[in-house]
Amino acid sequence: MNISKIANLRFFFINSRLLGFYLSFITLILFLFGIAWGLFIAPKDYLQGESYRIMYVHVPAAWLSLQVYIFMTIAAIISLIWKVKIMEIASIECAPIGAFFTLIALITGMIWGKPTWGTYWVWDARLTSELILLFIYIGILILYSSFEDKRQGSKVASILAIVGLINIPIIHYSVEWWNTLHQGPTVMKFDRPSVHSSMLIPLIYMFFVFNLYFITVLIKRIRLGICHREKNSKWFEDYIND
Amino acid sequence: MIEIFGLGKHTIFIYTAYIFTILILLTGYFLPHHLLKKKIRKIKDDINKKP
After folding, report:
1. pLDDT confidence of residue B5
2. Which one of A23, A129, A158, B47 has the fewest CB atoms closer than 10 angstroms to its CB?
3. What pLDDT score does B1 carry?
4. Chain B residues with CB-CB distance to A236 below 8 A
5. Which of A50, A97, A107 sits opposite B14 (nearest CB)?
6. What's the pTM?
7. What is the 3-state secondary structure of chain A?
8. Contacts of residue B23 in chain A, CB cutoff 8 Å?
9. Is residue A33 over pLDDT 50?
């Protein structure tokens, strides 16, 4: 199967339905196990006690908020240079998913902050740059929806996404560049991770599950995007009528 | 029963974070699902209305 076939909107819309269904089912099962692992199986932390368990939803969401943005920008660049329609749709449909992950990272971080730091929020570099990421995601969505012509809208939104990429290294390195209340990197660093494997393995597992969720929802959103753009085309009407 | 799920003095924080995550993830999943169904229904209705 070649890439041009998958990139074909008609082919994608028709064949992604079942794939989305199976992925949803697998993701749900793996997610439920991951929740149980994070809450009850992973050992208690000697310093933070039980509250560190928030890490199993907070950290994967924070990683995904950055990863989705990078994916969105790559799709935006491809759509601007090679005018690949499906990449145009994928790029803009990444924005709400990324916004949801960023929101989860921010809120669960606040909840974790209270028992750990004694406060829900501080204006330190990591938290502030992550909040800016949420505003960039929302900005991209508002900009896109303000255009009548969706192709034109996605072009302008793509440019904003590319400009906003500057925030990603700022978020990642903020804990090293500035003196922050947020802890430094414990997993994503050149040295060995400073988390014990009994805590690290469920974290990597949850990261994998969150990635599966991202793929599942992205497929659903691309289908929705295709539906918006191709509603007047002959193949779409024929497919709907069947 | 409640003791089994107890996670010490920070139980409320941990469960709030998990429940919030689950709610957002479910919203993120069902929103496009619902919108797609609604859109397809509308397109079908428009096609049927055509003379």
Report:
1. 67
2. B47
3. 47
4. 43
5. A50
6. 0.93
7. CCHHHHCCHHHHHHHHHHHHHHHHHHHHHHHHHHHHHHHHHCCCECCCECHHHHHHHHHHHHHHHHHHHHHHHHHHHHHHHHCCHHHHHHHHHHHHHHHHHHHHHHHHHHHHHHHHHCCCCCCCHHHHHHHHHHHHHHHHHHHHHCCCCHHHHHHHHHHHHHHHCCHHHHHHHHHHHCCCCCCCCCCCCCCCCCCCHHHHHHHHHHHHHHHHHHHHHHHHHHHHHHHHHHCCCHHHHHHHHC
8. none
9. yes
